[in-house]
Amino acid sequence: METLGYLMDGFAVALAPHNLMFALLGAFLGTLIGALPGLGPANGVAILIPLAFTLGLQPETALIMLTAVYAGAMYGGRISSILLNIPGDEPAMMTCLDGYPMARKGKAAEALAISAVASFMGSLIATIGLILLAPLLADFALTFGPAEYFALFLLAFATLGGITGKNPMKTVVAACIGLMIATVGIDTTGVQRYTFGVLELYEGVDFIIAIVGLFAISELLFFIEDKAGGGKEKMTVNKLTLSWKDIREIMPSSIRGGVLGFIAGVLPGAGASLGSFIGYTLEKKIVGKKGYFGEGDPRGVAGPEAGNNGASSGALVPMLTLGVPGSGTTAVLLALLISLNITPGPLMFTQNADIVWGVIAALLIGNFLLLVLNIPLVGIFVKLLSVPPKYLLPIVTMIAFVGIYSISNTTFDLYFMVAFGVAGYVLRKLEIPLVPVILGLLLGPEMEKNLRHAMDISDGDWTILWDSGLAIGLWVFAGLGLILPYIVGPILRRRMKVATGTGGPEGD
Amino acid sequence: MTFNDRIFGVLLIVLAVAYGWGASQFPAPFGGSEAVGPETFPYLLAVVLVLSSLYLIVRPDPDNAWPWSRTGVELVIAVVVLLLYTALLQPLGFIISTTLAVGTLCWRMGADLPRAYMTGALAGVVVFLVFNFALGLALPLGLLSFLEAG
Questions:
Q1: Residue A394: closest CA among chain B residues belongs to which residue?
Q2: A54–B131 CB contact, under 8 Å
Q3: pTM tops 0.90
Q4: What is the distance in angstroms between the Cα of A435 and the nearest Cα belonging to chain B?
Q5: DSSP letters along B110-133, please?
Q6: Which of A253, A318, B19, B106 has its Cα between 20 and 30 A from that of A474?
Q7: What is the ipTM, given to two decimal places?
Q8: Do B86 and A169 touch (CB under 8 A)?
């Protein structure tokens, strides 16, 4: 009941006119970001963070807007999956399987509408799950000591690659690089580390600059390399003829997909791609011979779409309650929280209750907005999708420049951003994932602080790090997170490959 | 071919050793040393990075091809454009430098010349107006600062 009271307060925050307006703006921008080529959700949210600061938004407004962007990006990813057979983002891959055949049969509008309804159901289920689960998990997390937190951070890194990840060692390398960058600056005892006497480095490396550089600039370079500036074929959408019967038919699939997706989102190491994959395979199993999967079965669109959206809302649970994000985009949202001076984790639920519940309420409202936006406005999004990347990416890059410049009005930050962009390009070429680098940058200070606290408590005895049952459990799971990809990873990857007929997921 | 991971692994080990050595040079914090000083966490990181880099050297993944030749040149051009954009942002002002930078990037990505620079100019002017008047953030005018009085 207490939760309900908080939720009502949250609605009061989220329904304030200016918050509602920014949620709408965020939902619109998010759908665009998800739909446009070369602008993944993590990248898009990252570019918008400095702009949210420039606007001088209140913390809750900024967070509401960017949560709406996050939710919207998941909607947007499906548009090009269905119309072009090109997934806008990775979790939308499974939507191609039945979405594109539907479009080929002249039912593109129906496929888009069905996927919007399924996305809505998936998010709704997962948000309700979030409301129920998050306070419990936050209460539980209050029992964590510094040693448990240290182990938890390790778990976060170990499972970041996901069990379908290719080479967990590269995740470790990436995490180390990120953590090393995080140690630059003046530490808590006032010692200068790796500043080389450069004044700009005293306060450490601003992770917003690093994130925007790593994502946005490296994306531009990849587009240039792939010579993908030309854009895609022209797309057309037929007139929508959808009856309630059609919607009723996909409801069971959507609900199953949403529940599965939520579970996949909450669990470390699963993620949205796995959520949509399981959603699809389960649908195929349950519906069995009565379906015509792979040839444009609406349930084959609904299942994975609901799964994908359920997982993305589920991924907010560990981020909000433990301060440990499980995906690239939630890592970027964590960056926003930290730069708003809000310490994520269990205490946030008591100290910043209005913000947390405002965001959760905004997620619910955002989903309604998205549903309303998506069905009638899909034509506009489709038009914008045909803007060729050769115009789009330079403009996006320019917006990234403006955003970073507006943080401190110095060009030093911009040079830094370009350097991070080139580094990001090289790392991606080497298949070193970027998300652990960013997570390392974000979690580094907290991780070191907890290590220090733990050692202060134990008076320098390292065994405190695996002294409690909880800590041991976390270490074991972290170990599994690194070992399992070697054992089950190849099998799962092969299955997903067979199912989609494309390359396996590579983690963003 | 598995050169990339090996070379990168060696570079990372060099980095880790340099990083670890750097940590050993930190001055002792004021008030005596504690169980965990400023150097402890970096030491841990250096060790983990050395071990994981050794793995990369021993078990490298197959290489992705690097874009040599023309594509490589295009990439270098793009980076140079971004660096020049940064350098010229304040002296030339936002609108002019954006026109040049966005225009050049569009052109190199395959747009035809007039359209590319038109896009750049349009984007520059629109973003400048939005930021200066709607958001109240002063972007530099540079060469065009004579417009400010008017």
A1: B102
A2: yes
A3: no
A4: 17
A5: T--HHHHHHHHHHHHHHHHHIIII
A6: B19
A7: 0.90
A8: no
